[in-house]
Amino acid sequence: MFTGIVEELGEVTAVEILDDASRFRLRGPVVTEGAKHGDSIAVNGVCLTVVEHEGDEFTADVMAETLNRSSLGALAVGSRVNLERPMAVGARLGGHIVQGHVDGTGEVLERKPSENWEIVKISLPADLTRYVVEKGSITVDGISLTVVDAGPDFFTVSLIPTTLDLTTLGLKQPGDPVNLEVDVIAKYVERLMGNQGAGR
Fold it and tell me: Cβ distance 180 to 128 under 8 Å?
């Protein structure tokens, strides 16, 4: 379980393409402190398992399903990534409940800078639109954000300087892909309401 509060901007240091998977080596001094085999670390919002850990780098295997559903397949050596360790029991929930299970990908459509913040417009897959509402929560590349506008096939978020400086959203340009995870509570409510209706 994560909160969508990115701990550091890491870097891909190696990529190994396997038959039906990829192996990534990533640098992140903060998230690797005390890390051990089997630990979870969110990489651009995708929950990955630490396979190896040495110094300030860790290695994680990414299966084909994850590569197909997320934007991790587009990563290359030198790519910057958002990194977050799981939330500790009893810690503050600074963002919202994030599972690290990507629901789909969007694309940065437009950036509108202003003096103190920046509005970013992102495309939204049709099967996810029902879960995205104005002032609701959404995870973009592992970052917990508040939806400003929710359109039929897009949404916008407003980014403060800290988010721009410390996450990949400060680097993304129109056309770049981003991982999306909608609010898990909305999905459970939909399922429960559907089952309730079916039982009447």
Answer: yes
Which residue type sits at 69?
R
Predicted pLDDT of residue 199: 44
Q: Are 121 and 113 in contact (CB under 8 A)?
A: no
Can you give the pLDDT at residue 196? 54
Closest CA to 20 of 68, 56, 91, 92: 68
The predicted model scores a pTM of: 0.90
**Cα(34)–Cα(156) distance, integer angstroms:** 37
Question: For residue 90, is it within any domain?
Answer: no
Q: Tell me if 45 sits within 8 A of 141, measured CB to CB.
A: yes
For residue 99, tell me if it sits in a domain.
no
Task: Point out the residues of the chain with pLDDT beneath 50.
Answer: 197-200
CA angle 93, 39, 72 (to 5 degrees): 85
Determine the Cα–Cα distance for residues 88 and 100; give it in Å rounded to an integer.
15
Domain span holding position 60: 8-84
Is residue 147 included in any domain, yes or no?
A: yes
Q: DSSP class of residue 77?
A: T
Which domain CATH number covers 144?
2.40.30.20
Q: Could you write out the DSSP letters of every residue in 127-175?
A: GGGGG--TT-EEEETTEEEEEEEE-SSEEEEEE-HHHHHHSGGGT--TT
**Rounded Cα gap, residues 7 and 162, in angstroms:** 12
pLDDT of residue 195: 57
